[in-house]
Write a structure and sequence with these properties.
The complex is a heterodimer of chains A (116) and B (268). By secondary structure, chain A is α+β, with helices and mostly antiparallel strands. Chain A has 4 helices and 3 strands, in the order αβααββα. Helix content of chain A is 58%, strand content 14%. Chain A has a 3-stranded antiparallel β-sheet. Chain B is mainly α and 268 residues long. In chain B, helix 1 (3-20) packs parallel to helix 4, helix 6 (148-158) runs antiparallel to helix 7 (165-176) and helix 9 (197-204) packs antiparallel against helix 10 (212-244). The longest helix of chain B is centred in the C-terminal third of the chain and has 33 residues, at 212-244. Classes of the chains: A alpha+beta (116), B mainly alpha (268).
Chain lengths: 116, 268
C-alpha cells in the first residue's frame, strides 16, 4: 500500500530503473560495479545490492548480455552490454515516457506541453 | 580493526545472503553471489586504508542481505509474469503497455519489505550472442558453504567421537547461532550430552549383572536419541530457512499477485 506522494514517486522510480540501466548501457558496455554505482549516485537506487537481481532478470529476458573478464589481482568482473532487443525496448519506453511525462507536466503546470 | 576482522564482516554478510537465497535456482544463486562478492571487493579496493566504519559503510550502501533476497524473489516472479504460459521469452508489448507496466510493477512491488509472489516457471537460460560466451564465475572464497548451524548439528552428533572436544565445539556453535531458538539449544545440548559418545561408552564399559540384552537396549536408545535430536535440529534449521528466505518471499508474492488478479477480474 502506497502511503504518500513521495513513496509513489519512489516506486515509479524503481519501476523505471530497468530502462535507466538500459539507457546507460546504450552509451556503451559497462562493468557491473560501475553500472550499479552510477545508478545509485543518480538517485535511482537507494541501495546497490537489489539492483543485481534486476540485472539478472534483464539478462534472462535477453535485454542485455554479459561477459566475465579478468580484472586486477586475479579477480573477474562482469561486463554488461545492451542487445538489439534491449535497444528496442528502451526506444519504446522512451517514446511513451516522454509522452507520459509531458502530459503530466501539462496537467500539473510543471512545464512542457501535452503530446499529440 | 584488522583486515582479518574486516574480512569476517564481509564473510558474515555473504553467509547471511547465501543462506537467504536457498531455494533459488543454483546457477542464478551462484551468479548473484559472485556479483555481490565482486562488488564488495571493488568497493573495498577503492578505499586506500579502510577502517571498520568504511567496510560497514560499503555493506550498508549495498543494503541488508534480506533486501537483496527479497528483490531476487520479486524479480524472479516478475520475469515469470512477463512470460506467457508456454515459457517463451518476453513478447513485445505495445509501447504504452511497456511504460505503464514498468511503472505499475514499481508501484505494486514492496522493495525492502517482504514482497508477495507467485510460484513461477523456471527462467529461460540467458541468451548468448554469437561470438560471446558467458564464463561461469566462482568467487575466490566460496560464500556460505556449510553454514555454522549445519556444522553444529554434525558436531553435536559425531563430535564426541573426535576426542570429545568436537562435541563441545558443536555446543559453542549451537549457542552462538541466531537461528536456533532457546528450546532448540537446550534440546541439542541435553539430548544427549556427547552425541553418539554415550552409545560407544555403553558398548565399551565392562559387562554388569544385567548382561548383553540390557546393554543392547541401552545402546539402541542412546543412538536413537542422538540421531533424533540431529534430525530435529536439521528440520528446524530448514524450516527457518524456508520461512525467512527466497522461497518465503516468492510465496508471499504469489498471494499478492493472485489477489491482484482477483481484483482485476472483479473490476473487469
Amino acid at each position: 500500500m502506497v502511503s504518500g506522494p513521495a513513496e509513489l514517486v519512489g516506486r515509479m522510480r524503481r519501476g523505471a530503473l530497468e530502462y535507466c540501466a538500459l539507457g546507460l548501457l546504450r552509451e556503451g558496455e559497462r562493468d557491473a560495479f560501475g553500472l550499479v554505482r552510477e545508478l545509485g549516485e543518480a538517485g535511482l537506487a537507494e541501495r546497490e545490492g537489489p539492483v543485481y537481481p534486476l540485472l539478472a532478470r534483464m539478462r534472462h529476458e535477453g535485454l542485455v548480455v554479459t561477459t566475465w573478464r579478468e580484472a586486477e589481482a586475479g579477480r573477474s568482473s562482469r561486463y554488461y552490454r545492451i542487445t538489439e532487443e534491449g535497444v528496442a525496448a528502451l526506444d519504446e519506453f522512451q517514446q511513451q515516457w516522454v509522452d507520459f511525462r509531458s502530459r503530466v507536466d501539462a496537467l500539473l503546470g510543471t512545464g512542457g506541453a501535452a503530446g499529440p | 580493526m584488522s583486515v582479518r576482522s574486516h574480512d569476517a564482516l564481509v564473510r558474515e554478510y555473504l553467509r547471511r545472503l547465501g543462506w537467504g537465497l536457498h531455494g533459488m535456482d543454483p546457477n542464478d544463486r551462484d551468479q548473484l553471489m559472485s556479483e555481490i562478492t565482486d562488488h564488495i571487493a571493488r568497493a573495498r579496493a577503492e578505499l586506500p586504508s579502510p577502517t571498520e566504519e568504511d567496510v560497514r559503510a560499503v555493506l550498508e550502501r549495498l543494503g541488508p542481505p534480506e533486501a537483496i533476497v527479497a528483490e531476487a524473489a520479486e524479480q524472479h516472479e516478475l520475469g515469470a509474469q512477463r512470460r506467457n504460459g508456454n515459457g517463451k521469452s518476453r513478447q513485445p508489448e505495445s509501447a504504452k503497455e511497456a511504460t505503464l507496466r514498468a511503472l505499475v510493477d514499481g508501484v505494486e512491488s514492496e522493495w525492502g519489505d517482504e514482497p508477495p509472489g507467485q510460484p513461477g516457471a523456471v527462467d529461460p537460460p540467458a541468451p548468448r550472442d554469437a561470438g560471446e560466451r558467458e564464463r561461469r564465475r566462482r568467487p575466490a572464497r566460496a560464500p556460505a558453504g556449510v553454514e555454522p548451524e549445519m556444522r553444529a548439528v554434525s558436531l553435536l552428533l559425531a563430535g564426541g567421537l573426535l576426542l570429545v572436544v568436537g562435541w563441545f565445539v558443536g555446543v559453542v556453535l549451537l549457542w552462538r547461532s541466531e537461528v536456533f531458538t532457546l528450546q532448540d539449544k537446550l534440546l541439542g545440548t541435553l539430548v544427549l550430552p556427547g552425541g553418539l559418545l554415550p552409545a560407544v561408552y555403553v558398548l565399551a564399559r565392562p559387562l554388569g549383572g544385567a548382561g548383553w540384552p540390557v546393554r543392547l537396549v541401552e545402546f539402541v536408545l542412546c543412538v536413537l536419541l542422538a540421531v533424533a535430536t540431529s534430525i530435529y535440529l536439521h528440520r528446524r534449521l530448514r524450516a527457518r530457512q524456508v520461512a525467512t528466505g527466497f522461497e518465503s518471499f516468492r510465496a508471499r508474492r504469489a498471494a499478492h499477485a493472485a489477489e491482484r488478479a482477483r481484483n482485476e477480474m472483479g473490476l473487469g
